[in-house]
Predict the structure.
Amino acid sequence: MIIAIANQKGGSGKTTTAINLAAALAERGKQVIVIDADPQASAQDWAGAAPQGRPFPVFVVGYARSNLAQHIEHIKEQYDYILIDCPPALGEMSRAAMSASDLVLIPVPPSPLDIRAAAPTITLYHEARTGRPQLRAALLVTRRIAGTSVGKQAAQALLGYELPVLSTEIYQRSAHVNAAGYGLPVTSFEPRGKAAQEYRRLAEEIASG
Ligand SMILES: Nc1ncnc2c1ncn2[C@@H]1O[C@H](COP(=O)(O)OP(=O)(O)O)[C@@H](O)[C@H]1O
Ligand SMILES: [Mg+2]
């Protein structure tokens, strides 16, 4: 399965989701690779900071600017999941990533501003889908602040996009910031923590279709 993790807005949780979802899927015994399609190369930085003797559990590769679709075609047979960490822009790269995918996963922090900011990404998804009818999309609530409910308005605004909203929600947790500093996914950094459990739940939800 090929998953493009896309949202034009920086800071929405794309890279955090690519890294931690990949690690959680790998924990389930799946062959997983992350393609870092962001020129800022955050996913590669993250994996590259892994401590000596504790290799990052998932292979993270840069995207060599040739044809993404061809590249994926080449490696597709080797992996159960190919996750593409898209850049915070809706240029050719995000378009190519969506057009090569089975699922566009759109992380959205549950604030009115962030929800509105997801609109152009969803438009790009609908465009990509015209050439690839099997392409699905799902919204993922990320960076939710504990102790708050996703406001009624926010929930309605999310549903207003008429795309599935995953039942797993990812909360804002310090483990994410710390894990990134140590070059680890939360599933390795704090295996029993809530942040790890949330990404495991997401992996389960994705794996169960
Ligand atoms: N669930 C979370 N809890 C705490 N911090 C988070 C969470 N998700 C993302 N962050 C932090 O927010 C910043 C942006 O997240 P990132 O995943 O890099 O977003 P994007 O790739 O969409 O730009 C990073 O510093 C990251 O550590
Ligand atoms: Mg990123």
User: Anything to note?
Assistant: Residues 7, 10-16, 42, 88, 142-143, 170, 172-173, 176-177, 180 surround adenosine-5'-diphosphate (ligand 1) (CB under 6 Å). The beta strands are 2-5, 32-36, 59-62, 81-85, 103-108, 136-144, 165-171.
